[in-house]
Amino acid sequence: MGKLKQNPIIKQLGFNRIILFLVMLFIYLIFCVLIPNFLGLSHVMSMLNYVCFLGFLALGVTFVIATGGIDFSIGPVMFCCALISGYTLNQHGVPMAAALVICILVGTLFGGFNGYMVAYWDVPPFIISMASMNIAKGLASVYTKTTTVSWPQSADPGGWFRNFLKVGNVPVGLIIFLIAAVVCSVILNNTKPGRYILGLGSNREAVRLSGVNTKKWEMIAYIICGTLAGIAAIFFAAAYSTVQPGYGDQYNNEAIAACVMGGTSMIGGLASIGGTVIGTLIIALIQEGILAMKLTKDVQLIITAIIVIAAVYIDVSARRRKN
To answer: Can you give the three-state secondary structure of the chain, one letter per residue?
Structure first.
């Protein structure tokens, strides 16, 4: 096994990512055996739609977890972005392009708020993200008067935004997500900001003593997370048309599980964007399989919780072995 890990090709691709990819293929084969027509285009496209919005959430929270922080507000923030921008679109007649900008801006503001409170006020990330989760739910409910918001269909005026998700059977959304993942990977692994963010998670004091403004870069990690949650909201609206106030919690756990499963350490300092992408594909695959098997929502929540626990356990065990 040691010689296999030292193979140049395997080292380049990442041994853990290869194993994770094989696990994904194994799960896919199991569902193909258990579920008739799981190889069909409808199931594949449904899974890829799920990957798009969940993937952007997972990319964003990867930056936050890399600093040693956490953000449990990303799911409700995503819903808040979609609700506020969609309600503004429908009730105030703003152009679709402006509504999409509002969607991203709302997410960025939440990210900035979370980052400022964590970095400059020293509020624990767990506490502020839980508070932001409730703020996002309450703000969206008040602004929309607790009504469900519908986004335009493809044939409606403004329905062109659905082309971000797919054109015919071409998964445009997946392509955009993969391009975004490459950009995030370059930022995190090949730039000074990325090294500063990773340094915050591995040895914050050493980074501070080297003259780096740690508060600034910690806040920026949360801003990136919020901005990507706003982008995720656009893909969610494109996939599901209607958005209801008071939801979104489920996607926190799924996005975090995708990160940790992919090799991002919960205590910070170590992150893998490639692993996050594969982790997102696994989560989306499992969710699509659960729906295809007609299992209840409660079963979905239980399975997601088990995945989170398993991912964290693997991360902790790996850290112990390394130490």
So the answer is: CHHHHCCHHHHHHCHHHHHHHHHHHHHHHHHHHHCCCCCCHHHHHHHHHHHHHHHHHHHHHHHHHHCCCCCCCHHHHHHHHHHHHHHHHHHHCCCHHHHHHHHHHHHHHHHHHHHHHHHCCCCCHHHHHHHHHHHHHHHHHHHHCCCCEECCCCCCCCHHHHHHCCECCECHHHHHHHHHHHHHHHHHHHCHHHHHHHHHHHHHHHHHHCCCCHHHHHHHHHHHHHHHHHHHHHHHHHHHCEECCCCCHHHHHHHHHHHHHCCCCCCCCCCCHHHHHHHHHHHHHHHHHHHHCCCCHHHHHHHHHHHHHHHHHHHHHHHHHHC
What confidence tens digit (pLDDT) does each residue in 211-226 have? 999 999 999 999 999 9
Decide: pTM greater than 0.85: yes
| CATH numeric code, 41-314 | 1.10.3470
